């Protein structure tokens, strides 16, 4: 019998009021485990436990909090094989991705916030001609980062290790306490993270994990009066609903939402580099990533060659069992999501796009697979170009000159990460500065993990990663005194 996972509330493993539900391996359609279905009362209890723990944890010296995070990083790294195997089974990611970019990144993120950074800084003295007392004076000031309080972390299904770690680690480092509500498709990994933190010595109530398929679970975790801030990664539509609830109670928000990343490829680009970068949409989490360069804008001089090379690249990728070392493209998360992605491919056909490669369900007898699909002959008004598909599907739109390319790139509701490929570095940076996106990759899809991360427009609110995450999970307090 596969183990039945309890909730983690107030430092204790707690049986769920709503019983358990199956977690399905997207590759085999077999049962990975049984996840707990919390009740609203249990979610409120988790938030209350976090509120009770906040005072003592926020007063714990930063060095002690950092030491807990450092021990957690070591525990996660030491259990890499076990945790990566579970992550692969829950998400359908290839084993290499599960090891390096899920569990490995999670350990790195805990390690990153296990170092203490200054939480206060001096502000230059100000000479006041006159003040409330009627006398001139010199006023000194100090800015101090203070923890926000209780943070609800609502995490995404595409990376149940790195995404929660990117929220929990900086939040705890700043002295906040957390309630984590993982995605219903793959919550078991997040409970392993909670176990690692418990083993690392995190006090009861500082970290809580509650899961469930009911939308009421997430709503309760957001609406609880004990919650001061919500950190959410997911779709723009859900983010909008969360923001409405937060707005009523003036709760802080950090939102990393949808994306439809434009990849501008100019005539002078290194096509091999562009193809390899854009091709990550097909392979990296099977396109289930908001930062993917899914919307290719190709200058006409290289358009046909780029389409041809992208199609050839996609056809070479092995689709299949993510446990096999040579598999590059695993399944998408569920049958429902596979159907959604396939419906977009069919919509593209109806809109007049040309399916250059893919478009058919691949061979594996079980699992939720979508073949890497390239849609050419697209216009910027097509839904497949404008809407987030969240699968291994790339669209290609031609453009004539730099101005048109920039205009097409910015003609979107989204603005998370865009990309520019050009042999003219001056032009690449000039174009990058005109793109309405939170990040721009110049001749790369790589990330600098200290650079601020977040979106413009409907792609999010706020910035995190590196020191920016410490700002995101804190309030700034000013202390002023006469000089």
TrEMBL record:
Keywords: Oxidoreductase. This is Aldehyde dehydrogenase. Pfam families: Aldedh. GO terms for molecular function: oxidoreductase activity, acting on the aldehyde or oxo group of donors, NAD or NADP as acceptor. Belongs to the aldehyde dehydrogenase family. Residues 13-479 form the Aldehyde dehydrogenase domain.
């Amino acid at each position: 019998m596969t183990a039945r996972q309890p909730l983690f509330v107030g430092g204790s493993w707690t049986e769920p009021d709503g019983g358990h539900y199956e977690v399905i391996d997207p590759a085999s359609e077999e049962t990975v485990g049984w996840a707990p279905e919390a009740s609203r009362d249990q979610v409120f209890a988790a938030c209350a436990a976090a509120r009770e723990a906040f005072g003592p944890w926020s007063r714990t010296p930063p060095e002690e909090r950092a030491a807990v995070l450092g021990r957690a990083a070591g525990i996660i790294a030491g259990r890499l094989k076990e945790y990566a195997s579970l992550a692969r089974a829950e998400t359908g990611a290839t084993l290499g991705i599960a090891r390096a970019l899920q569990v490995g990144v999670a350990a790195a993120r805990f390690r990153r916030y296990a170092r203490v950074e200054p939480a206060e800084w001096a502000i230059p003295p100000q000479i006041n001609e006159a003040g409330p007392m009627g006398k001139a004076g010199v006023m000194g000031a100090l800015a101090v980062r203070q923890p926000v309080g209780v943070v609800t972390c609502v995490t995404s299904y595409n990376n149940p290790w790195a995404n929660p770690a990117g929220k929990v680690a900086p939040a705890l480092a700043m002295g906040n306490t957390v309630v984590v509500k993982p995605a219903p498709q793959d919550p078991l990994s997040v409970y392993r993270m909670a176990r690692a933190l418990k083993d690392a010595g995190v006090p009861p109530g500082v970290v809580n994990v509650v899961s469930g398929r009911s939308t009421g679970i997430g709503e309760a975790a957001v609406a609880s009066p004990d919650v001061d801030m919500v950190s959410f990664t997911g779709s723009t539509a859900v983010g909008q609903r969360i923001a409405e609830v937060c707005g009523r109670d003036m709760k802080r928000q950090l939102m990393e939402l949808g994306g439809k990343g434009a990849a501008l490829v100019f005539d002078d680009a290194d096509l091999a580099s562009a193809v390899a970068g854009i091709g990550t949409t097909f392979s990296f989490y099977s396109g289930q990533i908001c930062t993917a360069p899914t919307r290719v804008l190709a200058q006409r001089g290289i358009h046909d060659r780029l389409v041809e090379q992208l199609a050839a690249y996609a056809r070479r990728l092995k689709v299949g069992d993510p446990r096999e070392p040579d598999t590059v493209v695993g399944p998408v998360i569920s049958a429902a999501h596979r159907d959604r992605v396939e419906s977009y491919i069919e919509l593209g056909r109806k809109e007049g796009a040309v399916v250059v490669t893919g478009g058919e369900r691949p061979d594996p007898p079980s699992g939720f697979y979508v073949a890497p699909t390239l849609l050419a002959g697209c216009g910027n008004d097509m839904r497949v170009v404008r809407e987030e598909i969240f699968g291994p599907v790339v669209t290609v739109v031609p453009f004539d000159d730099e101005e048109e390319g920039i205009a097409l790139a910015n003609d979107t509701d989204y603005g998370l990460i865009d990309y520019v490929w050009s042999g003219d570095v001056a032009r690449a940076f000039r174009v990058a500065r005109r793109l309405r996106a939170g990040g721009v990759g110049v001749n790369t899809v790589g990330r600098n993990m200290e650079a601020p991360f977040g979106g413009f427009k409907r792609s999010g609110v706020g910035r995190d990663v590196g020191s920016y995450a410490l700002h995101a999970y804190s309030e700034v307090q000013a202390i002023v005194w006469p000089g």
